[in-house]
Specification:
With 103 residues, the chain is an alpha+beta fold. 24% of the residues lie in helices and 34% in strands. The strands form 2 sheets. It has a 5-stranded antiparallel sheet with strand order 1-7-6-5-2, sandwiched between helices. Strands 3-4 form a two-stranded antiparallel sheet.
Length: 103
């Protein structure tokens, strides 16, 4: 059975961290990505509202065209998934985060 259209499973190309904590996800992103941003709970990425207990770090790996996306699955806990970046993803995310700050 295919995952629902608005599920994080349809976006990820791989799980980077699972069975972990929010602090460990944030530390991993900050340590491995030269560019990262705090995304608020409910931030929408490609039609999926990110389930987060508090703001968490989303990392960019621009040369590899990868985005590290934090997520909390209610029955599994925090995880970090790697998503293949599409054209415009990096700039769109930054623009949306900046727009949210000014509101």
């Amino acid at each position: 059975m295919a995952p629902p259209a608005r599920c994080i499973n349809r976006l990820m190309s791989g799980i980077v961290l699972k069975d972990t904590t929010v602090d460990m996800v944030n530390a991993y992103v900050k340590d491995t990505c030269s560019e990262w941003y705090e995304v608020p709970p409910g931030f929408e990425f490609r039609g999926v509202n990110l389930l987060l207990p508090s703001p968490m770090a989303m990392g960019f790996k621009r040369k590899k065209k990868k985005i590290l996306v934090p997520f909390v699955k209610p029955c599994y806990g925090p995880l970090l998934v790697e998503v293949d970046a599409m054209d415009g993803d990096f700039s769109l995310i930054v623009e949306r985060l900046n727009a949210a700050k000014t509101q």
